[in-house]
Amino acid sequence: MVALPWPTAKLPERVPGYEEVVSNPVGGFLDSLLRGVSQIMFQNNPLTGALFLAGIFYNSVTFGLYALLGVSVSTLTAIAMGVQRDLWRAGLFGFNGTLVGIALAFFLEPSGAVAAYVIVGAALSTVIMAALLHLLSGRGVPALTAPFVLATWFLLFASFSFHVLDQTAFIPRGAFPSPVMERAEPSPGMFFDGFFRGFGQVMFQDNVGTGAFFLGGLLVNSPISMSFAAAGSLIGLLVGLGMGSPETALRSGLFGFNPLLTGIALGGFFLVLTPWSALFAVLGMVVTALLFPTFVNALTPWGMPALTAPFVITTWLFIAAVPFFRVLRPVPLTELSSPEGHLRAYAAAGGR
């Protein structure tokens, strides 16, 4: 039996009929799918998942359908393979499949062959998730979106040899990137676009409106997570601007989505929120923003995107370092809920 890394959250009692809906198999499965979408940003809430999904469909019906295909296949794979019920009900085997579905539809021209590819990739993400939970959970390190990154890289590398798969213009191409020639000039429009698109780019949505949906989804479940996500998107913009990055990358939110995820992870989710952990999270967000071009430059000659690898590597390093920093209070993986819940538990335990 595997200990549940994220306890199953319940909606407020004021939501009428919720318990009745999820008590039947169909309603419970749909609830799990929405939680799977919400878990992309560490939120275990079907309302948050519904807002995230609405944001994807707002930008692209195609991406929305592929997201549903990915989350459904990865969740069904977990069920069929006998994964502990609480794990898949909490959406832990859905969020990586969601991202795989969108990513493959983003980097490959949607077709029947790509849909079949998504099915394989989403199922693979469940296998990788199980493997990483087995290898890492005992050390207090979460799997994060590493299953998505690995599954997507594996399949995109393979796509170069398959004539039935047509790559889109978003696949990185060329030799080692040339030095940046165009330097961004700060403007209100650039900050507005970059801030909201940073939220959207977590799920490959280059759309301000989608970013607003995602921000609202975070606010529904955790104002603290929303605040650190906003800080991450802004810090990514500021780091990119300060280092002289091109405006197109900043305005499109590419510097924001990885620090945004790091901010949520370190800003009260895996660590109890204190002044020290907040500073730790800020450092993590800055490092993540600097790692983004590192991965872009390293992977471009191979025709591979960075995806959320900067977030995964930074967060793994920072969480693995926590036992040596006595001013930080890690939250055991079996007790994860929300930053607000962790603060309440910390206060109830007398600050221990």
A few lines on this structure:
The protein is mostly helical. 63% of the residues lie in helices and 0% in strands.
In words, what does this structure look like?
The protein is mainly α and 352 residues long. The chain folds into two domains: 162 residues, Orthogonal Bundle (Ammonium transporter fold), CATH 1.10.3430.10; 178 residues, Ammonium transporter AmtB like domains (Ammonium transporter fold). Helix content is 63%, strand content 0%. Helix 2 crosses helix 4. The longest helix is centred in the middle third of the chain and has 25 residues. It starts with 17 loop residues before the first helix and ends with a helix.
Please bin the fraction of helical residues.
55-70%
CATH superfamily of the largest domain: Ammonium transporter AmtB like domains
Instruction: Return the domain count.
Output: 2
User: What is the H/E string?
Assistant: HHHHHHHHHHHHHHHH
Task: Supply the number of helical segments.
Answer: 16
Distance between the termini: 28 Å
Low-confidence stretches: none
Second CATH tier, the architecture of the largest domain: Orthogonal Bundle
Name of the CATH first level of the largest domain: Mainly Alpha
Overall SS class? mainly alpha
Q: What is the assembly state of the chains in this entry?
A: single chain
What integer is the average pLDDT?
A: 92
> What coarse outline follows from CA principal-axis ratios?
globular
Q: How large is the radius of gyration?
A: 19 Å
Please tally the β strands and state the result: 0
- Share of β-strand residues: under 5%
**Major beta-sheet overview:** none
CATH topology of the largest domain: Ammonium transporter fold
